[in-house]
Design brief:
The chain has 310 residues and is α/β, with parallel strands linked by helices. The protein has two domains: 182 residues, FAD/NAD(P)-binding domain; 118 residues, 3-Layer(bba) Sandwich (FAD/NAD(P)-binding domain), CATH 3.50.50. 24% of the residues lie in helices and 28% in strands. It contains seven helices and 19 strands. The strands form five sheets. Strands 1, 2, 5, 6, 7, 8 and 19 form a seven-stranded mixed sheet that branches. A five-stranded parallel sheet has the order 10-17-11-12-13, covered by helices on one side. A three-stranded antiparallel sheet has the order 14-15-16. Helix 1 links the parallel strand 1 and strand 2. Helix 1 packs parallel to helix 2, helix 1 packs parallel to helix 7 and helix 5 packs parallel to helix 6. The radius of gyration is 21 Å and the shape is elongated.
């Protein structure tokens, strides 16, 4: 069974940055790319809010640069998926989808979180062409345009309010006859002149030639007064939550009720010696590439400190 000094699970901004730091510290590091090489960022197109690129940069190009930088410092990259872990005692035991088993002296969990989608085929069809799960990332592209936000919780209200500062019109598509958000967030969207809330409404599909041009909606689906109609809009934002990729660690590591890994204070320490969490898997609030990269650097520094203290 191969023994690894530092194993990084996940290959988004957090995972690659962590590996850059550990390798530069002389710590042999293996990155397991996981389900989505490059992470969630690769589902978008142009990234304009990552420092150092005044004209923006293609998301896949940005992640390829990070990958190459980690490789240049000596990190090994595996195209594997971790399916089982035993973190009961060091060295930690990890099993991958191809049957490979390794032990790791230190472990950085950077497996990210996946946005929840409605499950419509059109969401895949138009991903990067009008469908987004991050208003902060993609809202700029919809200045003076019309957008729709799906969801009725705090996140949806926050996304709608942010988009209303850029867009001409924002529709909130809410399947229930009420909002689940806190009262202060409800007041903000209800009283905002650019936001219109469509209660008891479901989206059944999207349409458009070269991108999203609108959605197929149903009012009071399945009821006697059901009404189907098409609503034109330029962008379709999902705000129904995220699922952290933390299931295989839950027997050993504390998480919140949603599954986000709980870390100690402002550090990436998980409470298990030598095991750290970075990026969206431990961040229910910001979910930004630059913040994920910063937390990756923190995890890399913590690994170096942990090993030197031993």
């Amino acid at each position: 069974m191969e023994q690894i000094k530092c194993l990084v699970l996940g290959s988004g901004p957090a995972g690659y940055t962590a590996a850059i730091y550990t390798q530069r510290a002389g710590i042999p590091t293996v990155i397991c790319e996981g389900l989505q090489p490059g992470g969630q960022l690769t589902t978008t197109t142009l990234v304009e809010n990552f420092p150092g690129f005044p004209d923006g940069i293609d998301a896949n190009d940005l992640m390829e640069r990070m990958r190459k930088q980690a490789e240049n410092y000596g990190a090994k990259i595996w195209s594997k998926i971790a399916v089982k872990t035993d973190l009961s005692a060091a060295p930690y035991h990890i099993i991958f989808d191809d049957g490979t088993e390794v032990t790791a002296e230190t472990l950085i969990i950077a497996t990210g979180a996946n946005a929840k989608y409605l499950g419509l085929p059109d969401e895949t069809k138009y991903k990067g062409m009008g469908v987004s799960a991050c208003a902060t990332c993609d809202g700029f592209f919809y200045r003076k345009k019309t957008v729709a936000v799906v969801g009725g919780g705090d996140t949806a209200c926050e996304e709608a309010t942010y988009l209303a500062s850029l867009a001409e019109k924002v529709y909130m598509i809410v399947r229930k006859p009420y909002l689940r958000a806190s009262q202060i967030m409800q007041d903000r969207v209800v009283n905002h002149p650019k936001i219109e809330i469509l209660f008891e409404t479901n989206t059944t599909g999207l349409y458009g030639e070269n991108g999203v041009e609108g959605g197929h909606l149903v009012y009071r689906q399945g009821q006697e007064d059901e009404r189907k109609y098409d609503l034109p809009f330029d962008g379709f934002f999902l705000a129904i939550g995220h699922k952290p990729n933390s299931d295989i660690f839950k027997p050993w590591i504390k998480t919140d009720e949603t599954g986000y890994i709980l870390t100690e204070g402002k550090t990436p320490r998980t409470g298990i010696p030598g095991v750290f969490a970075a990026g969206d898997v431990a961040d229910p609030t910001y979910r930004q590439a630059v913040i994920a990269a910063a937390s990756g650097s923190m995890a890399g520094i913590e690994v170096e400190k942990f090993l030197s203290d031993k």
